[in-house]
Amino acid sequence: MQKFFNFLVKHNAYLLLLLYCSVALLVIRFEQDDLLSKIRSGGTELQASISDKITSYGYLFNLRKENERLMKINAELLSNVLRDQTVLHDEKNRRALFADSAAASSGYITARVIDRKFSSRENMLLIDAGKKRGIRRDMTVLTPQGLVGRVIFVSDNYAKVMPVIHSDFKVSVSSDRSNALGILSWNGGAEHLAAIEHVPISSPLKKGEMMLTTDFSTFSPRSIPVGRVIRIKPDKLFYRIDIRLAVDFSSLTYVLVAPLKTDPEKIEAFHEDLPQEQPGITNPVN
Amino acid sequence: MTRSLPLLLVLLAVLCLIQVFGLSRLTLFGVSPDIVTTFVAVISVFTGQRTGMTYGFASGMLTGLLSGNIGVSLLTRTVEGFISGYCHVPEKSHATMTQKSRMLYLAIVLASFFGNLVFNLFNDPLGESLAYRIFISGTLTCMMNLLLGIALNKLFLRKTLTE
């Protein structure tokens, strides 16, 4: 017994390290559990409310510039709406094709970006809309310019968004003219550039084509602009494609959150043949 | 230093807030200075490995809560406290002020490097290679925190070091 106590006294720093590290590893392991999730939710609420207060002072100084920018977007949107209305009026028979997007657009939620971090420690956006305003995990976040990201964590009043410029973010895309399919990913580097993977050499994709989200995605509505192709390099089987992202992440202020794409049958069918995933870890390719 | 525990805890909380809402936004090549690491290193140097680790654990809890990454934050800060504890200067040491300062800087560099190493083993938000994250980001983090440590030493720690 004496030897045991001597051992404890002699190695107490290591034992304390072991204890703390064990607690930390347990927290990492069970981070998705209910209790820890609630604690994280509380932390996010606190961080967001403080960030909200800090950034709201910054907004006061930029109101004029922000108003001008919104007026410009409004003008663009108005012209788009007028053009779409004309097309819809003239082509009644093709309305069914637009029914899906028209129904979906009714449930968009507007949110303000209240915090943004882009560093090797954290890369995420924080928006001032949460569960109370109908935000759910995996909802798509976008602006009139294009895709911003997807919701990965929601508390009562705030939500965390994984932006397109995150190494874990993947989404299925296709080009507007040639319909070439690929998977958008971001491998670090400049925040206005991303890459499209798995586009076969046989594809007729050209420089300058706009890449849009597809129906293959399990979370994103189709036809959201993602970016424009600026570089195409042929590799062995696939092209190496660089795109300039449609959204300027350095000046994001307001975003739209698209309603959740509820198609459980499709998701179920997709996962049927896949090996069982670990709880809390989503399929990276979606 | 051990007598002013409540004061140090309050200071730790304030520094965590400064880190999360201020310093984490000052990024250079994706790396930002970390005042909490510097603080944990200072505590470890003056009070020892166990106290340093405990402060590291507490600061990990606070920064983790605010950043939503509790587990990794706990682990990182604990390791920072432990590593910098190897540079502990006992209260009754006969070391000169320069020697104490050197130990402090060494503790900050070690804590920053190993903290960065542990964090990067679990996280990769910018999609950089592990070697880049460990060596380039690690070196940059060390340099930034060292500069922060030198500034803190010159401004606030002179009295403690001369005691």
Polypeptide structure, described:
Chain A is α+β, with helices and mostly antiparallel strands. In chain A, a hairpin with a 2-residue loop joins β3 (140-143) and β4. Helices cover 36% and strands 27% of the residues of chain A. Chain A is built from six helices and twelve strands. In chain B, α2 (35-47) crosses α5 (97-122). Chain B is 75% helix and 0% strand. Chain B has six helices and no strands. Chain B is mainly alpha-helical and 163 residues long. Chain B has helices at 5-21, 35-47, 49-67, 70-84, 97-122, 130-162. The longest helix of chain B has 33 residues, at 130-162.
Features:
heterodimer, A: 286 residues, alpha+beta, six-stranded antiparallel beta barrel, six-stranded antiparallel barrel, 6 helices, 12 strands, disordered C terminus, B: 163 residues, mainly alpha, 0% strand
Rounded to the nearest angstrom, the distance between the terminal CA atoms of chain B is 11 Å
Topology, number of strands of chain A: 12
Biggest sheet of chain A, in brief?
6 strands, antiparallel, barrel
Oligomer: heterodimer
The rounded Rg of chain B comes to 15 Å
Strand proportion of chain A, as a percent range, falls in 25-35%
String of helices and strands of chain B: HHHHHH
Q: How many helices of chain B in DSSP terms?
A: 6
Taking pLDDT < 50 over at least 5 consecutive residues as the criterion, the unreliable ranges of chain A are: 93-104, 276-286
Report on the biggest sheet of chain B: none
Counting helices, strands and paired strands, the structural category of chain A is: alpha+beta
Gist?
The complex is a heterodimer of chains A (286) and B (163). Chain A has 286 residues and is α+β, with helices and mostly antiparallel strands. Chain A has helices at residues 2-10, 12-29, 34-61, 63-90, 95-105, 264-272; strands at 109-118, 123-127, 140-143, 146-154, 159-163, 170-175, 181-185, 193-200, 210-213, 225-234, 238-245, 254-257.
